[in-house]
Give the backbone structure.
Amino acid sequence: MNPRQPPPIASWILDHLASGDQDEALAGDLLEHYRGGRSDSWYWRQVLASCILSWSQSLTARGPALIFALGWSLFAPAWNTMIDRVTDPLTFEPAWHVIRSSPRALPLSSSRFFLADSSSTTIEPNLHSGGL
């Protein structure tokens, strides 16, 4: 006589989705009770309850880290914007305003090759690179 086998999907869920140190002992106990005459619906309820319990214990143990990670990911763009504004207030100035107000930016529209001098912030044409 073959022993009764529990529902295969419920067994897979118990093996793969329940977390904890006592997974094998729990699976063995549930299998023993199932073969002792318990129903399929009882086995399913036990599997789902053990998954929910193990997930809630896992989340409770990692609660502070989870709350920090969620808070950081929600507020990180605002914090980055605030830090950028404090450290460099000119970054929020529109780029066209900077280009339009700079008299040396006009030659950038031509087809010459330009090099930035490392000692200053002005842009000088590079006449040695075969510019037009």
User: Anything to note?
Assistant: Residues 63-87 form the longest helix (25 residues). Confidence is low (pLDDT under 50) at residues 108-123.
